[in-house]
Please model this.
Amino acid sequence: MLDFELTVNGQRYPVRAEPRKLLSDVLREDCRLTGTHVGCEHGVCGACTVLVDGKPSRACLIYAVQMQGHEVTTIEAVAKDGKLSPLQQALHEVHGLQCGFCTAGIVMTFEAYLKENPRPSEAEVREVLSGNLCRCTGYHNIVKAIIRVADEGSDATA
Amino acid sequence: MRRPKLRHIGAALPRKEDLRFLTGHGRYVEDIEVPGALHACFVRSPHPHAKILSIETETAKIASGVIAIYTGKDLARWTTPLRMAPPIEGLRPVEMTTLPIDKVRFHGDPVACVIATSRYLAEDAAERVEVDYEPLPAVANLEQALLENAVKVDESLPSNLVSIQKYKTGDPEARKREAFKVVESEFHQGRMTHLPIETRGLAAVWDEGRQHLTVHIGNQVPHPYRSQVAARMRLSESQVTIVSPDVGGGFGQKIALYREELTVCAASRQLKRPVRWREDRMENLMAASHAREDSVRTRAAVTKEGRLLGLELEILEDFGAYCFYPANYLARVVAMILTGPYKLRDYAFEVKVALTNKCGNGPMRAPMAITSWVIEGTMDAIARELGLDPLEVRRLNMVETRELPYTMPTGEVIADITPRETLEAAVKAIDYAGFRKRQAAARKEGRHLGLGLCSVVESTTYGSKFYKAAGIPGSGHEAAWLRIEPGGAVNASVGLGATGQGYETAFAQVVADGLGVEPSQVRMQMGNTDVAPYGMGSRGARGGTAGGTAIFLAAREANEKVLAIAAQMLGFDSAEGLHLVDGRVEREILGERVKTDLTLAQVARTAYLDPTALPKGMAPGLDFSKTYDPPPMTYSNAAHACEVELDAETGALKILRYVVAEDCGTVLNPFVVEGQQHGAIAMGLSGALLEHMRYDEHGNNITGSLADYLVATSTDLPGFEVIPMHTPSRGNPVGIKGMAEGGVMGAIGVIACAVNDALSPFGVIADRQPLSPDYLRSLIRSAR
Amino acid sequence: MKPAPFRYHRPESLAHALELLSGLEDAKLIAGGQSLGPMMNMRLVQPAELIDLNSVPGLDLITEKDDFLEIGALARHHAVSNSSSVKTCCPLLAEAAGTIGHYAIRSRGTLGGSLAHADPAAQLPLVAATLGAQIVVNGKRGERRIAAKDFFVSMMSTALEPDEIVVCARFPKAAAGDRHAYLQFSRRTGDFAIVAVACTLQDRKLRIGVGGAEDKPLVLDGLNPAEEPDAIARKAREAVDPAENPRVPALYRKELVEVLVKRAVARCLTSN
Model:
């Protein structure tokens, strides 16, 4: 057992866990942030995607202890004071989620990606989205939501 | 019953469910905190078929954190076996113990359950459980299963054939003799699995004081599931509560009471402590439930013009090692509806289902998925062999609007469907005429385009008469209640199990129109068997028709009582001319609507707290219950069309365009319906192109992770062009036809048809799915 | 699928990392964790000790030197594919790195990790072999520089000694007028390649690297760019000897090699 501290969503969490305990499990059980979901535990489905120092990462492929000294951001931090981010709002408006289980991983991936590339083409959106599996929506409306945010973003700056 | 104007039904309302899912505050079973819960982990067989000689658990029991380890013998004391023996001719009864005792039947079969203080420690201990197996020869495929002296998967059966159903109407033999040609075709669908992104899991909480079991589990059919748990644990249904929270996808995998789940429930009772289990993805792939793996042959007797005279159908399904649901189900659905929108009098089928040493099958979204591929592929084969245009062959054989209602050769009646309209709309949208020109030009450049058409007549709902006729025990009715609280809030419930279909929103819209309030005033309470009425749950595209109608009827009854009370409160003799609109009573005076000051909240207050002011003889309260048994079958229809490009050098396929024209009847919420269509098509395409649960020739599962079992990602799928052409059904009060599985049927069919169109210059036919690049390339290579 | 227990070490210098690696029994290094993580979660690998390289400073730098581009072992694929130095000096590497897995995988996965893992279908070993990169390792015997062709020994097997760590890789810099192409064939975007082809045109010589066809990258050197792409492709097809595989028949793999080489050569000759 190790004692260490994690910084998640700007807050410090003291954790006592074995070094092998995955970040996905520590976030969910020790930090009680259950918005990050576990879908495969081998890095393929993307449901557990969080941000590590702002970069999207599979929480199931990180041992929580590795995150000492780093900043982890999860889905719970995206909406600010109850106000949805433009991406969250767009997903809601175009019906870009059904069971919701893959949604957090997709939101985290694109909150990061849209900062890097604010105006992606549909092909670029689909390419980045291909790292997140969804079994409900067929991706059509998710792509629509992301393009809407990209377009609105460019309108805002125009 | 006076039908209200529909203002909310049919509105594209963004979903109420979304907020919690978008912000990470959903409550899936693994999110529910159960203080003091122990964790289960299963020891599973590495062999496809083996005797269990002994299970040594002492070494594992002393591992850190281990509380108990249970095996099949323990479970046999605490639970009853499952006996699946519906009185259906041709279906053999089967029985399975809760955990295997004498032998294991597939690679991944659970043999022991380790209960420890964490999943990590449980997995450590599971590695230390020593099972002494005596491997047996395995039945690795259907061919082996049906051999003369085949090894038996289930020794209680005379052979591995667990179900055989035959049917004949008219004289297909005579039609073959008279025919200009008999066109033979084959269709082989690979083995798949449902793959919800949330794997199975539950938390079982036994209350020793109350002798009561509460099970938190994401399940599509909470009430039937509860009945099963109670029966198997020798408890009364009053002693079991199922609470289904948010569910991360079901698709048919979260219906049956699985052995692992029953084991966890029994363990909780035994230990008098909560026990939880979360299946990991490897287990889910290997040992949850599989699906499809059907082989179909058709023999179509046709005239020179391509008219269908008679059809013979043979289906063979690899059902795996255990029957989680009746093995004859496929016969009932596929063979029964196969002819779809095509006219036919002379029809025969034979459906055989056999056991093999693989994970057992469960119904997967559109268990009848192969249906449209088979009939549409047969139409294409007819066109190909007679040198006719495939569209003309379909037009020639398709039932006409004036011929509806039409009785299919199996006795099924199709009514209120529009297959001709949807076909023509899809044909127009995909530019069928223009395509042929483009295809010819592309071929000259060495590019291979293909176009596929696939009409779907989707069976939905499955009312009680269907089950009776099929000999399957069970009902098709649905139940709802609606309660207006003293403060005017509206709570409603239905016996369905939500797994992402937007019930909370769509049904609020139904109540809104039925009762006369705004959807925002309505809260749907589902999934908890202590709260929801006893209903049959969510499966077979029944939610909208069966559930929606039950809720609507309850809402209408509520509306009637509310207006009767309102009339009394306003001093009128009758409620004639009174309406409830967005929670306020309005009066119709000379054709004009006039608002009154009376609100639903005020009416409710009277009903609960001032009952002496109610109309004479009226009982207090505003609590309504209704059940509804839909017609035995409802049908919706669609036509799918897609354009593909095949890279002849690599076998790679690209979908250039995908169009679907659909008629689902009254649509509760267009967002939800379109989303369901997208999802169904995606699942169909994913299965047709990528998914393959493979076992080797010895019966070992070689598809162990998501790196092996491929599902479609966003770059594998096109955008979907959906053309809504909804016409209401006259079969139920709201006009709903049901949908959500037809997309799978259409996708599987249309992509195969498109690929074969692209392959036509090579003179080869793809009759197997998945349509992998190496398979397509091997066909092209063989043509040279 | 939880990993088996292990002791965790977080060295803060290369020297300490090396000390741990040679001193501990049954130890494994973790960098990005994108390949090791799944294997450990599935318990296919159960090291008693895990040495985390992520806190060793200075291992992630991308530095342009006179004769080569030096990329640190801890450089993430995302950084490599987006780096202006890499795009300029080694565009083939930037392009190939951008096709590895998915966005989240590229954010964590490292160059050193990919080279040491030596998956026969992986992009970076193929590019390293094709370009004739040098892999710099450090261990008990000090620093060694190993040519890519000697570094990749067999499937998942390299010339690394148990006490050695990949420190960086040195890629020859592209000259003006050099051309390249990278093509891969996989079932889906981001999947491991079934076959991958890297092609360069330098000093009027064509060089082709083929990945995924054998147990390590195969490099065909000194080809004549004036020859018909079809003929070059046939040569490549004859040169590879893929093992039979139930999922991908050898014949199909050979066909893919031929098709991809033909297309890569055509693209290479017309690229900038």
Observations:
- Residues 32-136+199-247+254-288 of chain B form a domain with the Aldehyde Oxidoreductase; domain 3 fold (CATH 3.90.1170.50).
